[in-house]
UniProtKB/TrEMBL annotation:
The chain crosses the membrane at residues 43-66, 86-109, 130-148, 168-187, 221-239, 245-263, 284-309, 321-339, 403-423. The lineage of its organism: Eukaryota, Fungi, Fungi incertae sedis, Mucoromycota, Glomeromycotina. One of its GO terms (biological process) is ergosterol biosynthetic process. One of its GO terms (cellular component) is endoplasmic reticulum membrane. Its EC number is 1.3.1.71. This is Delta(24(24(1)))-sterol reductase. Pfam families: ERG4_ERG24.
Length: 466
């Protein structure tokens, strides 16, 4: 997929050398300090940094001006229309930036459990504290938005009405924060695992654990902005539909439900995130910043945007047969169940073993979300690998469930245009790439124990098939 090669790390002054790290109990990998050129190296990431924003404008332009037809990117008026309709406005800037600052304020001040992350090699094995107040912040956000809308301080329909300018503001913000975080990190001398190639380092990031006081910026960007904005785009489209037609169609209600489930799952399971790979390994660069601030909310929502635009074009919302609608809902809910419980089984299993498990009453707590004494492999490295529950069926069954959800988001839009399938198609690519990276990493980390795990659980995505 991507041409990869590895170079030796030049640890900065604050970092321990790999030899020091090895001596620490409980720690990690030399590979966590290796620089691996991924995504096609500097040329590949340059193409992505230019191509992603253009792709976002293109897909939206095809929906907005060509009823979802994938016109030639060089088509006559496409770009002039996009420039006109998606030009950033002060109003859109205020909406987006006030929202981000409000979420940052909540992340700083709301109560929540403090959870330890995994040991960080570059901090000599230190485990960082993460304030997990995502759930209280989410509830306050819901209540605040209800009040704003209900009492006309800010009508939520403004979001879908200003979609183009909002997307542009998010894109500009993504770039601005990428450059700012990079520059501040270099000035502070806190850069980590640098390749020496400016563009590549901007893409992957310089900072590993950037913080604003007690707010971890990486976790904030991953959880507090993308999914919440995504949810409000579909809520906005649904309210607009209600204003125009006096009811919300089953397809649009599906979108609101689907996005609610996702953002709610991120909030209620936030305490599982500090030990994930993104937190311990990935740096805070364009890849995470741009994608979370702009890419996720403004491309994963294309199905909701399509339903909105087509209802205006056709003079009525899209309605499918009851059977198809039922199928889409059933697919969404069943795959959500597998996804939610598989993630919680694995994360809670690890947390229970580490003594960091914090039982929470967050809604909904699903049956089979926590396993009692599941089968597992105790590795020589120290960690245990779960082989019970969903994890006895396939090694990445949560990815399969997530993908099934993604496809259901497309199916509910029908088949008149391919654009709502951008998310499932792109997500297939992302997850395939993540599987490859993760499997290689785990194989190096756990050696023969990983081989044994693959022997016991031979399937990756679908039990009995692949
Ligand atoms: P995973 O949840 O797959 O975590 C991978 C890590 O988990 C491995 O590196 C290993 O870490 C540990 N692990 C793997 N197998 C086992 C096992 N059997 N028992 C115990 N630990 C194991 O990683 P992701 O962060 O990629 O995904 C988390 C969720 O986020 C998924 O549901 C995914 O679908 C979703 N996601 C969604 C995205 C979106 O854009 N919608 C993007 C990316 C992810 P260790 O080194 O600790 O052993």
């Amino acid at each position: 997929m991507s041409s990869k090669h590895t170079v030796k790390v030049k640890p900065n002054n604050n970092e321990k050398t790999p030899v020091d790290i090895k001596q620490k109990k409980n720690i990690i990998l030399d590979t966590d300090n290796e620089i691996v050129f991924e995504f096609g190296g500097p040329w590949g990431v340059t193409a992505m940094m230019i191509g992603f924003p253009l792709l976002m404008f293109y897909l939206w332009g095809c929906l907005q001006f060509y009823r979802g037809k994938l016109v030639s990117p060089l088509a006559g008026e496409l770009w002039s229309q996009i420039i006109k309709e998606a030009w950033p406005t002060w109003y859109a800037s205020k909406i987006y930036l006030i929202f981000c600052l409000f979420e940052l304020f909540l992340a700083y001040f709301m109560p929540g459990p403090i959870v330890k992350g995994a040991p960080v090699a570059s901090l000599n094995g230190k485990k960082l504290d993460y304030l997990c107040n995502g759930l209280t912040s989410w509830y306050v956000t819901l209540i605040t938005s209800y009040i704003l809308h209900r009492y006309d301080y800010f009508r939520l329909t403004e979001i879908i009405d200003n979609f183009g300018p909002l997307m542009t503001v998010a894109i500009i913000t993504g770039f601005a924060i990428t450059f700012t975080v990079y520059t501040v990190t270099i000035i502070q001398g806190k850069q980590h695992r640098m390749s020496g190639n400016l563009i590549y380092d901007l893409f992957m990031g310089a900072a590993l654990n950037p913080r604003l006081g007690r707010v971890d910026l990486k976790m904030f960007a991953e959880i507090r902005v993308p999914w919440v904005v995504l949810f409000y785009i579909s809520v906005s489209a649904a309210l607009k539909e209600y204003e125009m037609f006096g009811y919300v169609s089953a397809s649009m209600a599906f979108m609101v439900l689907a996005h609610f489930l996702y953002v709610n799952a991120c909030a209620k399971g936030e305490e599982c995130i500090p030990t994930t790979w993104d937190m311990t390994y990935e740096k805070f660069g364009f890849m995470l910043i741009f994608w979370n601030l702009a890419g996720v909310p403004f491309t994963y929502c294309l199905g909701a945007v399509y339903l909105h635009i087509s209802s205006i074009d056709n003079g009525k919302p899209i309605q499918h047969s009851p059977a198809w609608t039922f199928f889409c809902y059933a697919l969404l809910i069943s795959s959500y169940y597998i996804w939610d419980t598989a993630n919680s089984q694995k994360n809670r299993f690890r947390m229970i073993l580490n003594g960091t498990y914090v039982p929470r009453k967050a809604f909904p707590q699903l049956p089979w979300g926590t396993l009692k004494n599941p089968s597992h492999i105790k590795t020589k490295q120290g960690n245990s690998i779960l082989t019970g529950g969903w994890w006895g069926y396939a090694r990445k069954i949560h990815y399969t469930a997530d993908l099934m959800m993604a496809f259901s988001w497309g199916f509910i839009c029908g088949f008149n245009t391919a654009i709502p399938y951008f998310y499932p198609a792109f997500f297939t690519f992302v997850l395939t790439h993540r599987v490859t990276r993760d499997m290689e990493r785990c194989a190096r980390k756990y050696g023969k124990d990983w081989d044994e795990y693959c022997r016991q659980v031979p399937y990756i995505f679908v039990p009995g098939i692949y």
